[in-house]
Structures are given as C-alpha cells and as structure tokens.
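We were asked to recover a plausible sequence for a given structure. The inputs and outputs are reproduced exactly as logged, with field labels preserved.

PROBLEM: sequence recovery
POSITIONS: 585
GIVEN STRUCTURE:
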C-alpha cells in the first residue's frame, strides 16, 4: 500500500507543480456557470445587442447545449437543476425554452408574475441580495409582464442609503449583505426609474440621491470593471443601469468591458474570474508538508503573496489595511479566509524573513479587528451579521485561529497578547458552534445532495485543521468529538461525502483523511480513505472535481484544482506520519 500511495502522491505533486504560473502562484479554473452565462447574455443585450451580437449568440448556444436532461439548469454543468438558475436562463433565452417552462410550472404552479415573485420570496426570505436581482432580470426580459405593474413585483431597494457613511450600514438593517452595495444602488435605481414610490417624500429623496449614488458606484468600481470579479453581480449592475436609461454611463461601459474580456472560448462565463490567491495558498500548504517546494519557488511565491496584501483602506468595503483577497485582481476584496490562508502559507515559505514577519503581523492584527462580539470571524465585515453570508462561521474562525497559532511567537508582546485573547474567544465560539453530534458546518462550502445542502465533512475537517495549528488550550473533548463525527461519517467504500451516507468525492475524502491525521494517529479509517483516493484518482492521474463550492447567494461551483490540492495534502501528511513512526521505532 505504501508504494501505491507514494506513486499517487508523486503523480499528483508533479501535476500540481506543473500548473504553477512562472514567478507566482496558481490560477486554477472555476467551472463555467449557466447562471453567469445567462446574466452576462442579458446584460450585453441590454447595453448594446448589436455590438455584442456574437457573444450573445455564443452564450445562448452554450446554455442550450448544457441543459440538464430534465430541461432545466443547475449552477454548473454537473449540478442539479435549481429554480433560480433556470428562471434566469429562461429569461436570457426570452422564454424560448418550453421544457424549462414545464419544469418551472411543476415547481411553482404557474408562470404568473405574482407566483414567480412569491416563490422567490419563499426561497430567500428577508434577504433581497439575490431575489431582487432575479426579479429585476425577469422584469427586464419581459417575464413579469409589461409596464409599471411588472416592476411593482421587484422589491424596492433603499439605494439612497448608499449616500450615508459606510460605518452606518451595519446599523441600518439593510436588506442586502455587505458585499452587495453595487446591486443595492443599481437595482434600487432601475426599480425607482420604472416605478417610483407613491410617497412624495421618498420619491424626492431618491430623485436627489440618483446622481450621488451613481458617483459612489463609479468610485467603488474596480479598475477591471467587474464588481467582486463576478459576472453575475457585474451583469446585474449593467442590465439595471441600461434599463434605467444609463447605457452610456461610465459604470455600465466598464461592466460591459469586464464581461467581454472574461468570456470563455466556448461562449460561457465562470462564476468568478479566478480564486488564484486561495488556490495558491492551499497549494503551498499542501506541498510544504514535506518540503516539495524548492527555495527559488518559495521565494517567488512569498514575494507574490506579499505584493497582494492590501496596504490601504479598501475603497469598496472600507476594510482596513493588512488583509488578503481571494485573487490579485482588482475586483477582489480582503476577507478572513484568504488572509488566514496567506499567513499560514507565508509561515511555510519564509518564516524568518523580516518582511514576511511584518506582513504576518499586519494580517494578524487585521483578523483580530475583524473578530465579532461572539468570538467568531466573519468573511468581510465586522458587525453586520444580519443575513447568513455576513455571519461568523466555524471554518473561517478556525482558519484564523490556526494562522494566529503559526505566527504568535514571532510577534511583539502587545500583538501577541491581542492574538492570545482573540484566540481564546475564538475557541469559545467554536465550542458554542460545535453541534450535538460533534460536527461543525461551514459557510462557503456545501453539498447539493444533502437535505439542507450543508457540508459538515468540510466544516469539521477544516476546524480540526485549524485547531491543530492553534497555540492556545483546547477543551479536551472538542477535538475528540469532531474526530468521532468524521469517523462515523465514513462510507462503506472508505471515502467520505459531504455528510453521512452521501456519495464519496475526492475533495471530501481527502479533507477528512487530512483532518484525521492532523488530529491524531494513522488509523484503519485513514488507511481506507487513502486507498479510496489512490483508486479514484487513477494513481494520481485523474482528479474529476465535485461542485462543493458555495459562492455568494448560494451559487454552486467547482474548482478544478481542489481535488488535486486536497489529495496532495492528505497523502503528504500520511507519508510524513509514516516516516515519523519509522524514525521512532
């Protein structure tokens, strides 16, 4: 068995290192997205259908060619059909999808505009972050009827609030999450344009706010034109402004430029441009387990990562200096998970370099300042917490805990004290969030086959990884209970799915094996998991991805590097444990 693991690991490592870009990290490749393609097609048609005729036609063809067998669409070509994506594709195809209509009617009861709005309200509840954009695109496409009545079904968003200081947003009970400010402005404006409020005072306020909020929208637009580097958000902004008579506005033109620059040769768009920083830090941490990165590569990647650290207040989220985003591209914004990943990677690349230590210290302080009152770490902004994607979450909190643990001994006394206190609060949060069965649930990953689409395998595995790096005392039973849950979730075939009894995947099996090794010794369950990885990767030659990534607004994606990276990490850690056992015999 040892030979097959080594053979598999060698092949996986060779494939992973070959994919690194010269002078930097890994770019990766996100799945093409029916939702992204549909929104981009509608946006380009709204801005200038004649100028973008070829891209619109190619995008429509890709959608038709990638429909599921049931006549509907999921978020990726391998995803289950879902109602929001199918609604958007149906709208992008101008209703020319009879099988999709049948599918939608079966799930909604009818295609009456009020029924569409009611169904989306049931799906998204109080969070208008995605319900409002979907209804906006339906209205623009004529799926909600004609005239002001159609726009009456689109929730009015208080875009005038964007004129207030950013620090006040978390106190206002905003109906959208922190990252959705561009949608708040653009969709709020197009709804006001087509159906102004009957209240004369509100109507006057919104009329006065139009110019100021457009100016703000332009100020926060990234140099590449794409908000968050995401085709859907950028498309919703473009189609909304164009429908409001602002097709020639600088923001609209920049959005269209982003979309035309990021279309793929097959006519599709991914959910985001790339996760280059995220997959690079994952790759570094996987390859560093046995020194598989040579000094030259380590120096290049460390310099590349340090260059990405944000050293000024971010113009969009107003994040303080010190954090990292998921990509070096201009549309990405600093977040808790990527800051932690970058810090751990730098600890593996150049732990004694003064400039690296300074960067890690700035990152550690940034994470401390991000910590919520509950002791958890959110994704972007401290203190929002009104809607799910602004909450503290266990996997990001444990990641920060691990990043602090890697570097705490290198910090001065003041920062080390802050990190110590923050770590103790994070441990308490994780104890509070551990479920009765011993598992933790993540925010940004899930499993479509689970009843509630959660992925406790990912969440528990990443918390156990973070705890293994922590430099504070951990309650005796916290790790044990997490390990027990993972052991109980293993399938009979030796692999793991996203939850108990779900089909095994490479990503989830590798994460579970890695976490069990972080938390303890080699066990029969670990051996069985590694055998599953050897078999299902073709001895390290094939890594079919699974759509376990959960993007903004519950959109699924897969990243082609995830299965390879996670396998390298798991098998590297297994062989390192075996080597340590031999040395101690």
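RECOVERED SEQUENCE:
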């Amino acid at each position: 068995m040892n030979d097959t693991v080594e053979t598999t690991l060698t092949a996986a490592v060779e494939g992973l290192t070959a994919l690194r870009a010269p002078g930097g990290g890994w770019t990766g490749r996100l799945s093409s997205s029916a939702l992204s393609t549909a929104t981009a097609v509608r946006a380009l048609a709204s801005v200038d259908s004649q100028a973008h005729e070829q891209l619109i036609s190619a995008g429509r063809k890709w959608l038709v060619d990638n429909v599921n067998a049931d006549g509907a669409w999921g978020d990726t070509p391998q995803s289950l059909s879902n109602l929001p994506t199918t609604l958007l594709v149906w709208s992008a195809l101008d209703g020319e999808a009879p099988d999709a209509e049948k599918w939608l009617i079966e799930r909604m009861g009818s295609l009456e505009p009020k029924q569409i709005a009611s169904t989306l309200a049931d799906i998204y509840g109080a969070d208008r972050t995605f319900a409002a954009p979907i209804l906006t695109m339906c209205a623009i496409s004529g799926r909600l009827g004609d005239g002001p009545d159609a726009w009456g079904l689109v929730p009015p968003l208080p875009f005038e609030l964007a004129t207030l200081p950013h620090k006040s947003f978390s106190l206002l009970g905003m109906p959208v999450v922190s990252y959705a400010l561009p949608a708040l402005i653009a969709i709020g404006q197009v709804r006001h344009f087509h159906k102004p409020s009957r209240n004369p005072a509100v109507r006057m306020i919104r009329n006065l706010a139009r110019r100021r909020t457009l100016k703000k929208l332009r100020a926060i637009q990234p140099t590449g034109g794409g908000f968050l580097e995401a085709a859907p958000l950028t498309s919703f902004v473009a189609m909304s402004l164009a429908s409001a008579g602002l097709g020639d506005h600088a923001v609209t033109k920049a959005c269209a430029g982003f979309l035309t620059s990021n279309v793929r040769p097959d006519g599709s768009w991914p959910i985001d441009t790339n996760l280059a920083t995220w997959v690079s830090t994952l790759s570094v941490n996987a390859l560093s387990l046995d020194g598989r990165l040579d000094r030259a590569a380590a120096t290049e990647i460390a310099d590349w990562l340090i260059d990405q650290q944000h050293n000024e207040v971010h113009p969009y989220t107003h994040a303080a200096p010190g954090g990292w985003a998921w990509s070096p591209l201009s549309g990405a914004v600093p977040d808790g998970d990527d800051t932690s990943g970058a810090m751990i990677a730098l600890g593996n690349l150049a732990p004694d370099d003064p400039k690296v230590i300074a960067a890690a210290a700035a990152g550690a302080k940034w994470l401390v300042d991000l910590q919520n009152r509950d002791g958890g770490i959110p994704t972007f902004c401290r203190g929002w917490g009104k809607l799910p994607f602004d909450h503290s979450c266990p996997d990001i909190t444990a990641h920060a805990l691990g990043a602090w643990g890697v570097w705490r001994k290198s910090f001065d006394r003041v920062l080390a004290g802050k990190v110590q206190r923050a770590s103790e609060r994070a441990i308490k949060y994780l104890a509070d969030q551990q479920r009765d069965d011993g598992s933790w649930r993540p925010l940004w990953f899930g499993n479509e086959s689970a009843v509630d689409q959660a992925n406790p395998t990912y969440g528990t595995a990443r918390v156990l990884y973070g705890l293994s790096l922590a430099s504070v005392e951990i309650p005796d039973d916290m790790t044990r209970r997490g390990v027990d849950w993972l052991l109980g979730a293993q399938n009979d075939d030796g692999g793991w799915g996203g939850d108990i009894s779900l089909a095994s995947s490479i990503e989830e099996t590798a994460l579970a094996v890695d976490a069990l090794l972080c938390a303890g010794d080699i066990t029969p369950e670990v051996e069985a998991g590694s055998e599953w990885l050897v078999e299902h990767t073709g001895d390290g030659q094939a890594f079919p991805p699974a759509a376990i990534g959960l993007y903004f607004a519950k959109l699924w994606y897969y990243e082609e590097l995830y299965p390879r990276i996670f396998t390298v990490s798991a098998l590297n850690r297994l062989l390192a444990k075996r080597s340590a056992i031999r040395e101690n015999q």
